[in-house]
TrEMBL record:
InterPro entries: LexA-like, LexA/Signal_pep-like_sf, LexA_repressor, Peptidase_S24_LexA, Peptidase_S24_S26A/B/C
Designated name of the protein: Peptidase S24/S26A/S26B/S26C domain-containing protein
Domain Peptidase S24/S26A/S26B/S26C: 24-135
One Pfam family cited in the UniProt record for this chain: Peptidase_S24
Keyword DNA damage: yes
Entries under CDD domains matching the protein: S24_LexA-like
Family: Belongs to the peptidase S24 family.
UniProt keywords, alphabetically: Autocatalytic cleavage, DNA damage, DNA repair, Hydrolase, SOS response
Gene3D superfamilies cross-referenced by the UniProt entry: Umud Fragment, subunit A
Amino acid sequence: MSELVFYSPVKSSQLTKLPVFTCPVPAGFPSPADGQADEMLDLHQYLFKQPASTFMARVTGESMLGAGIHPDDFIVVNRAITPLDGHVVVAVVDGEHTVKRLRQEPGRTWLEAANDLDPPLELHEDCDLRIWGVVTHVIHPLFKKRAGAAWPGRSPRPTA
């Protein structure tokens, strides 16, 4: 099962509001943009709609790659949302934490990975299952920086 590292939400006073361009950014052909920020985005308000019931965790393992959740990603988890069939959840099964998709049918419950290498985890009556919350957001970089490496498109920093 995936191991999680838990983090408490940051107080909103510790966050900075970021500029957001309200013009749409198509994922297809380029379109001209005016380059002006039209509003400010408060990340705390966006990620933590219910701060008292929301926490963050860092994911390890590759069982949820097909759902866009990668090793070292941060997930935002809301404990106030009622988990339903198809939700990605943080679950504790027999004392072990995991991130999986909750699947439910009448008389049957299981946790499903989003990686063909990991079989579904069928939950029987003698299983101790606790759903800690529903994953609402995933935060991950599109590339990882290696020590001493330049970011793509940039020259390495000169050394003195």
